[in-house]
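User: I'm writing a short report section on ligand binding and want a predicted complex to refer to. Could you take this sequence and magnesium ion and write out the structure as tokens? A short remark afterwards would be nice.
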Amino acid sequence: MASVLLTARFATTVAKLAQLPEDGAAPEIAFVGRSNAGKSSAINALCQQRRLAFASKTPGRTQALNYFALGPGQLPPRAFIVDTPGYGFATAPIEVKRAWDQLAGRYLSQRRALAGVVLVLDIRRGLTDLDRTLLAWMQPDVPLLVLLTKSDKLGQAQRAAAMREAEADLRALQMPNPLALLSFSATRQIGLEEAREFIGEWLAGRVADADPGRAGDASGTGAGTE
Ligand SMILES: Nc1nc2c(ncn2[C@@H]2O[C@H](COP(=O)(O)OP(=O)(O)OP(=O)(O)O)[C@@H](O)[C@H]2O)c(=O)[nH]1
Ligand SMILES: [Mg+2]
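Assistant: Sure. The structure tokens for the complex follow:
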């Protein structure tokens, strides 16, 4: 079956919490990560579109939550992919950093519609303190998929070592969330099918769930428990 991700189209840009769509109308998958980590490129690759999410050589371009709708175009969206502002770019003025905390931090910690979070890490950089700060905002029952992207930049041995290190760093946080890691590359198409499967399972768990609120069984599909 073709991935529902291939139906993605731009839906809306949200710059303030008050502008968020009704919470729970459809499940949401958020892509989070440092500025320039490769979030937008990962979304484009997973959805097989070149410029769905704007990918840029200028860090900090995505300064709002960008919503992409999934599902047949004539129906209400079945789910949303949400591209979030990258954090950690050196030149961000303090107001911008604060705005990020307000918007993305609250979104992550409060949004009931969240069916999963995809944390995008540059495999050459691994998990940083800023990522740890972000992970501390996560709600405990939301599954986490970590994409170690730009793995095309490393050889096999370095890639394996970086994966092991990232996994150890993540496990050390002792988060209650279901956790999975994938070696990934948007440019070289590494890990795409596996990532689509995780996202598909998260969404299947939500759609099958009669209670639109989170009943704690979104991870009952087995997603993320490897
Ligand atoms: N080699 C390689 N480059 C990548 C990959 N993914 C992204 N890039 C490059 O990394 C840069 C940043 O990618 P983006 O997708 O814009 O990163 P982002 O996380 O969305 O950045 P912000 O929106 O600023 O937070 C771009 O120059 C991309 O072309 C990858 O898998 N391999
Ligand atoms: Mg981006």
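A remark for your report: The chain has one domain: 4-207. Helices lie at 39-46, 94-110, 129-135, 156-172, 192-207.
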